[in-house]
Amino acid sequence: MPVRIFKASIRKNPFIGAYVTLHSKRALVSPVVTQSFKKNLREVLGVEYIASSTVGLVYSVNVMVAMNSNGIILPKTISEEELEEISKLGIPKLVVQSKLLAWGNLVIANDKGCVISDYVPNEEASKIADFLGVDWIRISVGNYHSIGPFFAVSNELGLASTLVKPETLEKVADVLKIRIVPTTLNGGEVLVKLGALVHDNAILVGKRTSGTELLNISALS
Question: Has domain 5-218 been given CATH number 3.40.50.300?
Answer without folding.
Answer: no
